[in-house]
C-alpha cells in the first residue's frame, strides 16, 4: 500500500469512529438488549424475556423488536407472539409480522457477512402507564417446531425527542 492510500484509509477510519461516537452520544435508548438463539434453532416452546425499567410515565416512547437472522432462514417473514406484564400485573398479548426479505428473497435490514439485523417498530409514540418494570416475553409463531436461521432476538425502547413548542 502506498503512503497516500494509508492516509486516506486512516482518515476514513477516523471519520467512521467519530460518527459512531456522535450517534452513541445522542441515543435516546432507555433499553437495548439482544438474547442469542441457540444454533440448533428456536424451539416453538422457547420464550425470550426482557425486563424494561420505566421511570418516566410522561415521556413518549417507541418500542422495537430487533431480529438478527442468518442466510439459512427459510422464509420471507417471521411471526412473533409478545406477552407484556405491566408493573400492576396486568397482561397483554400481541402478535406482529416481521418482514426479513423482499419478494425476490433479498434480505432487508442491515448487516455484514451472513448476519442481517432488522429493527421492527412494534409500538410508536406510546406512554407507559406506570413506573416500574415491564416484562416482555417473545416467542415465534411460525409452523416449524424448531425454527432455523434466527441468530438473536432483541428489544429496544427509545424515548422520543420532545416536540418543538407550537406543535411543529
Any overview of this molecule?
With 168 residues, the protein is mainly beta. It has a single domain (28-159), classed as Jelly Rolls, CATH 2.60.120. The protein has one helix and eleven strands; from the N terminus they run H-E-E-E-E-E-E-E-E-E-E-E. The protein has one helix at residues 3-25; strands spanning 29-36, 42-43, 48-54, 61-70, 77-85, 91-99, 110-112, 115-126, 132-140, 146-147, 150-159. A five-stranded antiparallel sheet has the order 1-11-4-8-7, with no helix packed on it. A four-stranded antiparallel sheet has the order 3-9-5-6, with no helix packed on it. A two-stranded antiparallel ribbon has the order 2-10. Strand 5 and strand 6 (91-99) form a beta hairpin. The longest helix is centred in the N-terminal third of the chain and has 23 residues, at 3-25. The protein is globular, with a radius of gyration of 19 Å. Mean pLDDT is 87; it is low at 17-26.
Descriptive terms for the model:
mainly beta; 168 residues; four-stranded antiparallel beta sheet; Jelly Rolls
Q: Based on DSSP secondary structure assignment, what is the total number of beta strands?
A: 11
| Structural class category | mainly beta
How many helices? The count is: 1
Rg measurement, Å: 19 Å
Q: How many domains is the backbone divided into?
A: 1
- Beta content comes to over 45%
Could you list the spans in which at least 5 consecutive residues all have pLDDT below 50? 17-26
In the CATH hierarchy, the architecture is Sandwich
Amino acid at each position: 500500500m502506498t503512503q497516500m492510500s494509508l492516509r486516506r484509509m486512516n482518515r476514513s477510519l477516523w471519520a467512521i469512529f467519530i460518527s459512531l461516537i456522535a450517534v452513541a452520544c445522542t441515543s435516546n435508548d432507555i433499553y437495548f438488549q439482544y438474547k442469542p438463539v441457540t444454533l440448533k434453532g428456536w424451539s416453538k416452546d422457547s420464550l425470550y424475556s426482557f425486563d424494561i425499567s420505566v421511570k418516566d410515565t410522561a415521556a413518549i416512547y417507541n418500542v422495537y423488536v430487533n431480529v438478527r437472522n442468518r442466510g439459512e432462514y427459510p422464509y420471507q417473514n417471521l411471526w412473533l407472539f409478545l406477552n407484556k406484564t405491566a408493573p400492576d400485573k396486568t397482561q397483554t398479548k400481541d402478535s406482529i409480522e416481521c418482514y426479513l426479505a423482499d419478494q425476490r428473497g433479498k434480505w432487508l435490514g442491515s448487516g455484514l457477512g451472513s448476519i442481517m439485523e432488522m429493527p421492527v417498530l412494534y409500538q410508536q409514540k406510546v406512554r407507559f402507564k406506570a413506573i416500574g418494570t415491564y416484562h416482555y416475553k417473545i416467542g415465534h409463531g411460525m409452523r416449524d417446531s424448531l425454527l432455523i436461521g434466527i441468530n438473536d432476538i432483541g428489544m429496544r425502547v427509545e424515548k422520543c425527542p420532545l416536540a418543538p413548542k407550537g406543535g411543529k
